[in-house]
Each structure stands twice: as C-alpha cells, then as structure tokens.
Amino acid sequence: MSGHSKWKNILHKKEKTDAQRAKVFTKIGKEIAITVREGGSDISVNSRLRDLIVRAKQNNVPNDNIERVIKKASNSDGIVYEEILYEGYGPSGVAVIVETATDNRNRTASDLRHYFDKFGGNLGQTGCVGYMFTDKGIIIIEKDKKFSEDKLMEDALEAGAEDISADGDIYEITTEPNDVYAVSSALEKLGYKIMSGEKDKIPEIYITLEDEEDIRKMNLLLEHLEDNDDVQEVYHNWENQD
User: Is the pTM of this model over 0.70?
Assistant: First the structure.
C-alpha cells in the first residue's frame, strides 16, 4: 500500500480479482445476501442493494448470478451471514482492519487469531486501530485523450465527487463512501473508463517495514486473510515499496 497513491493497493486488489474471479463473485454475493435480508430486494428502497448490483456488474458478475443470489436471499431458509469487523496489528505494529461476513463467528475469530499470531501480529480489541482510518470512496479512471482533466473535474463534481487528482496514467477521484457507486456509474454513462470504484479505508499515517522477515510475514498475513472465505476486505497502513 502506498502512502502517496492508493492506486498501487487498488491495482494489487484488481490483479487478485482477475486471478480469483470466483472468490470475488462469492464475496459480493454474501454482501448482496446480507443486504437483501436486512432491507429487502426492492432497489428503489434498498439503496445499498442498488450500489452492490452496480459494484457486481463493474466486477463482471453475470446478471444471472446476481438474480440467483437475490432470489436465494429472499428465501428465509437460506444461510444467514453476520458482518463482523476485526482489528489488530501486523509485524512492527502495522494497523490491520478485516471486514468479514460469516455464518460461524467462532470459526472466523479462531482463523483470524491464528493468522495474526502465526505471522508476527496480534488480534486486538474493537477500536484499537479503527481511529487511524477514514472511510472514503475511491474511483480510478484511466487517462484518455478524449477528455481533459478540467472536463473530468467538472463532470466528477457534478456527479457528487469530493476531489480529483492525477497520478501517472490514471485519475483518482475521492467521494463519500456511500456515494462511490453512484458517482462511478454516472461517470461511466458519460463515457469514462472506470478501472475501479470501491469503498476504502484510508490511513492517516503509514508504516514502512525495513526488516525482510517482517515484510515476509506481512505478505503472508495478507495472503492468508484475503484467501479466507469469510473475509470480505482487508485494510492496512503498510506502505509497501514493491
């Protein structure tokens, strides 16, 4: 994760998405199932479901899959998932937040505690690192000669964005967390190529790991967390220089 640009972290997530598309489908499906159970299947009144459908389509989840998950979640006999947030520390005090959706909180807590302990960290109490992060929406748009930065700024602000910055071959647009899917959808309709549009937790400070063993353990911790079926998202303040 870079302290100067969030794109490096988002690109890493996108590469994993491309390599593990089935896992992404499953994770988005869990979120949809939870949202339908809590707020119903009518997108005109369930704004979170509407946003998730936009997110699912941006991640190339087929419409049939989306409809199947919604129908199954509307059935009271389906699996009930619980959303739980875990916080802890990686090697050398790296702050880590893990969002989960689980049907067995004991299994999930046990798995996460094992990962943190095994790879040089420890699972902490709720709130131990959360205050170090700010919730935002981050949209990444590929630069295109067909539009100028001024035009994108105008369109993004009109759609409800907070700010825009350029970084190499991409533009990074910041929104309020609940506005990210509406803004990305509006910009997509205007012809902009959306590379990523997700809610994110932005650290106030970053930690650079110097010790090779700490770097190895931090990478292993993140790999194990992201590969766990109960884990939805992982956020941290490690400034990865790779």
Answer: yes
| Structure token digits, residue 67 | 């409809």
8 A C-beta contact, residue 136 and residue 202: yes
| Spatial separation of the C-alpha atoms in residues 150 and 103, rounded to whole Å | 47
Q: Are 176 and 136 in contact (CB under 8 A)?
A: yes
Q: Kind and range of the H or E element at 4?
A: none
Average pLDDT by consecutive 10-residue portion of the chain (242 residues)? 46 56 81 89 87 84 89 78 95 97 95 98 95 94 90 95 91 93 90 88 94 96 94 92 54
CATH 2.40.50.360 fits 134-202, yes or no: no
The answer to whether 90 and 124 are in contact (CB under 8 A) is no
Both tokens assigned to 106 = 């004991």
Best CA proximity match to 84, nearest among 37, 126, 48, 114:
126
| Distance (Å) of CA 136 to CA 90, 105, 124, 201 | 23, 27, 23, 6
Domain 7-74 has CATH 1.10.10.200: yes
Strands 163-167 and 95-102: unpaired
Q: What is the DSSP letter of 178?
A: G
Q: What is the pLDDT of residue 56?
A: 87
